[in-house]
Specification:
Shape of chain A: elongated
Oligomer: homodimer
Structural class of chain A: alpha/beta
Number of strands of chain A: 12
Largest sheet of chain A: 6 strands, parallel
Largest interface: A-B, 76 and 77 residues
Strand order of the largest sheet of chain A: 2-1-3-4-5-11
Distance between the termini of chain A: 68 Å
Strand content of chain A: 15-25%
Order of helices and strands of chain A: HHHHEHEHEHEEHEHEHEHEEHEE
Helix content of chain A: 25-40%
Chain lengths: ~350, ~350
DNA sequence: TGATCTTGCAGAAACGTGACTGTCAACGCG
DNA sequence: CGCGTTGACAGTCACGTTTCTGCAAGATCA
């Protein structure tokens, strides 16, 4: 049996290789590669001819071979925080979904795709996928995965400034301190005398920075801190904590909740104690959910602008991957947006009949 | 310059190859490969020695090379519906997030990772990633991406039964028809005389099957259909449609909303028209969101069990990839769950003071 | 009219792994 | 002692691409 006959050796019947294209077009492999990738010096006629033959054969270059040769896979890892065993948690549901969506779009627009990976350092999964870089959402201190990635020379960009000495390539975050101070001032302007905080027991920087800002604000204005902390990954614990906060003898007349479900939790707790919002209790929570636009009453929310964060993270990462502008700032701060609704205003702006819900601003 | 000196040719300084391990351990490449992959016939001493050296050098096999050689990448594509330009839409927000989370977990547990890909047939992205299989959420009729994937011999499993003659390998879905009929019966049992439907204008099978079931139910019980359809991808249109539905002269005394935000939309519209829920208007919507447990009143929801669907889709797909049990059913139906709350019961189950919100059932 | 340059393409070497084949010694058995 | 068998490895090829080098043939120029 001659070896020349087995030209279609191991190739699957449905897939045509670059060799088949070259043979069908009557040119060499080099010419096919150059023609399809726009390289080399070829007359337009040859280029068109090769492309036509490739289309006719339904040729798709092997991603694995290309990756092996070029060292670039076009894949970006997306690591999401795991409080428990789940890839992401209820607390950040809407935030994560929005951020991931924006990141996906931004990556695709530049020819990259996102791979969802666990924060646990399971080598069997991490080492099985060739990554060009990684996005880490809210990395924990001394994250072993991040350390190993940077040790391998891969760029790592985090959503949320890294705790401790975590060696990320760059990070994108909000100014959580300023955001909290702004909300507290906003509530104080609306007449709040004692502002409470619903916070978390976890040690991530978001919770830490926000709580610290609250405590410093209290100290500055001379108010005793009134807060309840709960494990943010437990959706039921939030309702209990909201109840506790409003059951205290030093019950606050305004509350800021750090996590997405706190709005409904606090609203339900207020109803249980017969407190009217906003007359008896001013309410603000940090959330990306649109449901707070049509609750009764609508609740003022702080948006962390996850879309802008997701987009920025991807742009910074891909720039680092492609070696563009290493001189640019590796730390980027995205402004937050306070969406003021009825729950934080003593006097509702309008008492007339409201029209059908107006579109949310971007 | 001798060629032997350049043994560490193109390799990046941080990455050790299998050659380096072989040299450091004093064995051949074959022995290293066999020792690490548990193949061949090697004494345990050699096996341990090689593994030790590999660990010491921090050796990680190249995913690209392994994929090229074995033809398996360990990557599964996740294609999400795009109504507009965005990867996924508000309407299915919670559903998608839950489903994707479950699918991610299930895939990781079996050593696979998920790659988020656009439903548009952008070859430059699709052909740049080596996939072992693909999950398609709610595929549209004659989806070009799906057709091309199956033509390449890749298994494709869809969440939602495929419309028309789309040649998917397998699918997992709910029995939407039975679910709608069950809800309508539930509302009729609660005393509804005229049940309305808030539905979509899109042509996907979920909308189609649900609407058809509604119309047939109406015909069977002799009720005139009362429904409003709107483009489900537009979050504002839902509020307007809910308003229209309750503004009709033949206003329904019960409404089922097919999409996640319909609950809050309908609740807001009911308030605008002074309708009490559930006294004047019974409400059910299809949603995975936990906010409906603590709205005023809590709203009865239909859960499509996205976690079970996501898990099942991945199991079926990986079984197909690994050639396990091609004789198993390629069509799998996941039961839905109706979570009955106050909004669909004429007589609230309890009028006593309710305790802090109880945990949601799984 | 050679000498040099440009054009248009072919050959072949990698990329890092997995798998097949080959080699050499030791060993059991008649 | 001859022979087949088995253990323990080494050599080598192939996966499908990209890219570097090189080679003819025509163009340009002194």
């Amino acid at each position: 049996m001659s070896r020349a006959e087995t030209s279609r050796r191991g190739s699957r019947p449905g897939r045509a290789g670059i060799r088949d294209v070259a043979a069908a077009a009557g040119v060499s492999i080099t010419t096919v590669s150059d023609a399809l990738n726009g390289k080399g010096r070829l007359p337009d006629a040859t280029r068109r001819h090769v492309r036509e033959v490739a289309d006719r054969l339904g040729y798709r270059p092997s991603a694995a071979a290309r990756t092996l040769r070029t060292g670039k896979s076009g894949l970006i890892g997306l690591t999401v925080t795991t409080y428990g065993d789940e890839p992401f948690t209820f607390t950040e549901f809407a935030y994560f979904a929005e951020m991931a969506r924006a990141a996906t779009s931004a990556a695709l627009a530049r020819g990259y795709a996102l791979v969802i990976l666990p924060a646990t350092s399971r080598h069997d999964v991490w080492s099985n996928v060739a990554l060009d870089g990684t996005v880490v959402i809210d990395p924990s201190d001394h994250d072993p995965v991040v350390s190993e990635l940077v040790r391998q020379g891969l760029p790592v960009v985090s959503d949320g400034r890294p705790a401790g000495t975590l060696p990320v390539t760059a990070w994108v975050d909000n100014d959580h301190e300023a955001a909290v101070l702004g909300i507290l001032d906003h509530l104080a302007d609306a007449g709040a005398r004692r502002i409470g905080l619903l916070t978390g027991t976890t040690t991530d920087t978001y919770t830490h920075l926000s709580t610290t800002a609250y405590l410093r604000w209290c100290e500055r204005v001379g108010q005793d801190p009134v807060y309840e902390a709960y494990p943010a990954h437990d959706p039921c614990a939030g309702a209990v904590a909201a109840d506790r906060l409003l059951a205290r003898p030093d019950r606050p007349d305004a509350v800021y909740g750090l996590f997405d479900p706190n709005g409904t939790d606090l609203l339900a707790a207020a109803r249980r104690y017969g407190l009217r919002v906003p007359e008896d209790l001013l309410l603000v929570c940090c959330s990306e959910s649109t449901v707070y636009a049509s609750t009764e009453p609508p609740i003022t929310t702080l948006s962390l602008k996850p879309r802008r964060i997701g987009t920025a993270v991807i742009q910074v990462l891909i720039d680092a991957i492609e070696g563009l502008g290493p001189d640019q700032p590796v730390e980027q701060v995205i402004p937050t947006e306070l969406i003021v609704r009825t729950s934080s205003q003593r006097r509702p702006p309008r008492t007339t009949v409201s029209p059908p819900r107006s579109p949310e601003r971007e």
